[in-house]
Amino acid sequence: LRFLKKKYTNKKLHDYFDRVSKHVNEHIDNFLGEKAAQQNRPTMINLAGLTKKARSKDPFLIYRINVVVDNSELTRPPIVIETAPSYQNLFGTIEHIFEPGGIWKSDFTQIKGGSILQANGGYLVFNFLDALTDMRVWTGLKRVLKNNQIIIQADQLPFAVATSAIKPEAIEVDLKVLVIGDYYTYQYLYEHDDEFRKIFKIRADFDTEMPNNHTAVKNYAGFISKICRDENLLPLNRAGMAIVVEAGVNLAGRNSYISTRFSDIADIVRESHYWAQQDGGEIITEKHVEQAIKARKERLQMSEEKLQRMILDDILMIETSGKKIGQVNGIAVFDLGDYSFGKPSKITSEVGLGNSGIINVEREAELGGKIYNKGVLIISGYLNGKYAQNTPLTMNASICFEQSYSGVDGDSASAAEIFTLLSSLAKLPLRQDIAVTGSVNQKGELQPIGGVNQKVTGVYQICKARGLTGKQGVMLPHQNVPDLMLDKELIKSVKSGKFHIYAIKSVDEGIELLTGIPAGERGKKGKYPAKTVHGMVQQRLRQFSEKMKNYESGGQST
């Protein structure tokens, strides 16, 4: 002890050495043999059995040092990533030893440190949602970060008797805690927990996509190479690497961006390795990556195949040829979480006399979402701007997604809905071999939509199954053209003229393509040319107005 006192100058250590020296002198019998102990303390002879039991244990146990955390070999602040942030793993615990009779005992050697102590002086990282499964974790974490102290406590032992209760001293801690979670958890705690915003003052957002440029592609290649090295996977050639990058662009949903969902990219590389091994190759090629992507899709597309079969069997009535008044094919996207796909959906409209304006069937049936309902209201604004400058709109019109029995949301069908209304009012048939997607503002301008690749592919698959005629296609907003990332077969069909993609900027462009008749420009007196779509619509609305006046004045309408 004298040597240790000279070596270490810490006052707490000196106090501890003094207590050890005093304790040894007061319990010298623990270090003597049984006979020497009896001679030294004859009054203890009647307790020989107990003394023997005590001496059977390690007499040096009480003087041992329990090193809870040892970061002495680190040359930098510790960085601890806790993958299972339970209360015990984060804050530590005091373990118990079971003894006969159902008694649990413990001592200071059973004190175990947690990740907070391991990260003391450095950084602790864990997933927030994993920690919130036990509310003790969140309460304890706030207490530690507010007070900069941690007290290791023992867990309660149900249905057992504990004969020793240890309460270690509080340990000073100084660390940075980085929690990883989703946006919604952050917002909820920020709004409902005042302490959260005081403790976690720095927020950093991580996007699921990044700009698709040379730097991003280079980083992608580096990430893929690292996965191959770390997991002993076969290397990829340039063509195979390019297909993986293309898959990342597909995940982002836009040609100018690339996905940062690296776990999904890593899975594609792993599955490509499997197919390369099955092929007996020593390198992952373009063929193996495409095979992996195709296999992933086939595992997930059961719902898509069933819907396609229902369309081909005419259970879901979708027409891909001919012309119809007041009817057009819109395109719906089904999102199953890990897989999404598009399919055509029939949209119809009917018009008649009345003053109710547009009746949204989906809304009346309580199947329409807020964004969808807003899109229908925008259509009313478009009609007012086009045809109600001199006379009010006098009509009843209904819009319906046929054979749709679940919720409908989004405004990507508003262009198709306008086309069906104009068709019904002008009594002009619309082409059924062109499916339509696109949002519209009150000025009649097309606005970009999401899921464009799934929508184009879904329509193409139906047309292909029925036989490509060279006239079928998809009409979409011109802003979505840079987002197109279609498979090789579809691109080949477009290039050969078997399938078409029409990019439009306005309702006028779309209605001309669907009817083959000019949309028409309004003249100085507010009238459209008679042999144009808008002219025919305007004339029909005037007829409605005159018939309504006649009806309301006591006459009859036919």
Plain-language structure description:
This protein has 558 residues and is an alpha/beta fold. The protein folds into 4 domains: 1-64, no CATH class; 67-206, Rossmann fold; 209-300, Helicase, Ruva Protein, domain 3 (Orthogonal Bundle); 321-544, Ribosomal Protein S5, domain 2. Helix content is 43%, strand content 16%. It has 22 helices and 23 strands. A 4-stranded mixed beta sheet has the order 14-15-17-16, sandwiched between helices. Strands 1-6-10 form a 3-stranded parallel beta sheet. A 3-stranded mixed beta sheet has the order 3-4-8, with no helix packed on it. Strand 20 (439-440) and strand 21 form a beta hairpin. It is elongated, with a radius of gyration of 38 Å. The N and C termini lie far apart (115 Å). Residues 42-56 have low confidence and may be disordered.
Write down the Rg: 38 Å
The tally of helices reads: 22
What oligomeric state do these chains adopt?
single chain
In the CATH scheme, the class of the largest domain would be: Alpha Beta
What's the N-to-C terminus distance? 115 Å
Q: Give the beta-strand count.
A: 23
Overall geometry comes to elongated
Count up the domains.
4
Q: What fold name goes in the CATH topology slot of the largest domain?
A: Ribosomal Protein S5, domain 2
Average pLDDT, to the nearest integer? 87
Helix content: 40-55%
Low-pLDDT stretches are: 42-56
Q: Describe the strand arrangement of the main beta sheet, using strand numbers.
A: 14-15-17-16
Class by alpha and beta content: alpha/beta
Strand content: 15-25%
Query: Main sheet?
Result: 4 strands, mixed
